Amino acid sequence: MRKPDVTCSNVFIIDIGAFTVLIDTGVSRGLMDSICKVLAELSQDNQKPILIIFSHTHVDHIYLGLVDQRFQNYGKVFYVCHTSGSDLLKSGDQKYTQAELVGIPIPSLCVDIPLFQKNLDLKGLSNIPEIEIEHKHYQLSDSVSLECVRFIFPNNQCISFWEVPGHSADSIAVQAGSLLHVGDIPFATSPGIAGVPGWNPKELSRTIIRLSWIILNQKISIICQGHGNACTSDELKKNLMNLQQDLDAMPEITMFDKTRLSGALLHATDLIDEAHRILPILAGRIMLLRYRLEELEEDDLARNLEKILPDEEIDKILVQFSRYYDNFKSGLRCEYQVILKAIQTLQKIKSFLSGNNVENIIDSSLLRRTLQLFSDLLSSIQGNIPTGSLSFVNPVDLIQDVAHRRSSHMMSDEEILLKADDEDEFKKVLVCRLAEYQNLSDIKITIDSPIDPQTIYADSERLSDFFSVLIDYYYTYGADEAHITINTLPEFVLIKIAPNGACFQPCLPLSRAMIRSIKYAGGELVKIPGKESEEMVLKFSTKDPSLTGSNQN
Q1: Burial class for 58, CB neighbours closer than 10 Å (0-12, 13-18, 19+)
Q2: What values do phi and psi take at 232, rounded to 5?
Q3: Contact at 8 Å (CB) between 25 and 65?
Q4: Fewer beta carbons within 10 angstroms: which end of the chain, N or C?
């Protein structure tokens, strides 16, 4: 039974003659109603034993199995999980199971069949037909071994349990014929999943080898996952390759606990707020460009642009998140659920922008900033403060470059005319030129600085994008000039920015995400705009902090 929710697992029910087998129980009471209907059809006078197998002991997979008494209505229940998970459930652990993280306390449970325990047998269990147990050990390489426990039922059908740690120490894969249930291994490197209690990247890398071996040597064709749809073994092979690539590229991740969760939540809501601000601008610019193309009777080009950024669909995605966040504020959702939903929201938005060639249609700084929202959220979830690529930058050159890009064309009229003989090329440059007109803003940028300004230590791309967004902000609220003063101190440079204009009247303050971006660019906001003055002051070091005591540029 598939539950389309990142915070509730799927549930799989297998009828094996004298037994009913459940893999995981989920956390949704609505899903439990469906489970009960199936169990009612499979039960035989409530005498048929029910094996409830936990693929691992995270709360989204086990909760109903611990608290819902209705399972007992359909037969004698026996709980099965990895022996390390069994110890956690017996102690009523709240941290490793993530019960503490999602705010759902769980009771303790004595597991009937702790898998991979030495000398495991079922002789002490009553009211259960005889099950033959086999233990297998496979040495796949000098550093990778694989353990298997096989239950052989009276009708000679069998279920195999494979030890596959990495996502958690107690993760198991469950095989029934050509079907293999792999739990949450396919998502183990995903944001908000990597770093949970039990996460072990080195062991996960070995498990990728283990699962690849199982697929090849056990003739697996169908893969069932802890969340989402089933897939083929070939699809899982590709997923495993991607997992390994993620592991190779992944920075060191701190444990995802309550402290990290609170920080990530603040970051996530700020970034979603910023997405609410930026994406309508992107959509509006593309809509205006489509209108201009239709005026020129370039209907095909206009229709192609409509596919780049489906504004109605993105608006729907953002509205869904807003409702989700309202549910959180009303106590209907927990922090962890909001984080996962924010990741899901930004991933969908990123897919629209990453899959299309929009660099020449949308202002590049605005596009970069939109995509940067996602990477900054990932960094915060991984427990890393987002940082830029810091280097020595001439602030005057940087600001002048921003001003130049906002007031000039990428291609001259003469260069455009040279493309006239090639219809396809001419249409491309036509779209770019029309797009440029809406990216240009009629705002004057003046700079007062020393003749030979001191370089600052900053991320030039992030700082350039900040100035572009800030000028957009000023222009939107009626400013006709941005006056920038650069003052050099012994170890710092102060950049004062003041908007001017008779009609300038900002209706909204600078967003928290925008203010935070100054820090990510290597600077500090030492004066924030207020009622008395709209002037802001940025502070940047003239030295590389990592080279304190050494020669500086």
Answers
A1: buried
A2: -85, 165
A3: yes
A4: C
Q: Which two tokens stand for residue 58?
A: 């995270």
Residue 406 carries which side chain, given as an amino acid letter? R
C-alpha distances in angstroms, 92 versus 35, 63, 87, 111?
25, 12, 9, 12
- Partners of 224 in beta bridges: 181
- The runs of H, that is alpha helices, within 76-147 are 83-91, 99-102
Residue with tokens 């192609």: 304
Angle at 363 between CA 358 and CA 368, to 5 degrees: 75
Contact between residue 348 and residue 320 where contact means Cβ atoms under 8 Å apart: no
> How far is residue 281's CA from residue 366's CA, in Å, rounded to a whole number?
9
Cα-based angle 41, 22, 57 (whole degrees, multiple of 5): 150
Closest by Cα among 245, 149, 164, 147 to 200:
164
Nearest by Cα to 189 from 263, 253, 98, 140: 253
Angstrom distance (rounded) from CA 494 to CA 477: 25
CB 243 within 8 A of CB 236: no
Q: Are 83 and 90 in contact (CB under 8 A)?
A: no
Locate 322 and state its tokens. Answer: 């807003």
How many other CB atoms are there within 10 angstroms of residue 219's CB atom?
Answer: 10
Which class for 542: exposed (0-12), middle (13-18), buried (19 or more C-beta within 10 A)?
Answer: middle
Residue (of 495, 549, 492) closest to 527 by Cα position: 495
How far is CA 365 from each of CA 54, 178, 272, 315, 512, rounded to the nearest angstrom?
48, 50, 18, 22, 18
Q: How far apart are the first and last CA of the chain?
A: 63
| Number of helical (H) and strand (E) elements in the chain, helices listed first | 16, 19
Q: What does the alpha-carbon distance between residue 41 and residue 95 come to, in Å, rounded to a whole number?
A: 37
Contact 367, 353 (CB under 8 A): yes
Q: Residues 361-377: pLDDT tens digits?
A: 555 666 666 667 667 77
Q: Which of helix, strand or coil describes residue 173?
A: strand
pLDDT per residue as tens digits for the range 399-458: 998 887 776 655 566 665 666 666 666 556 555 555 554 444 568 899 998 888 889 999
Question: pTM to 2 decimals?
Answer: 0.70
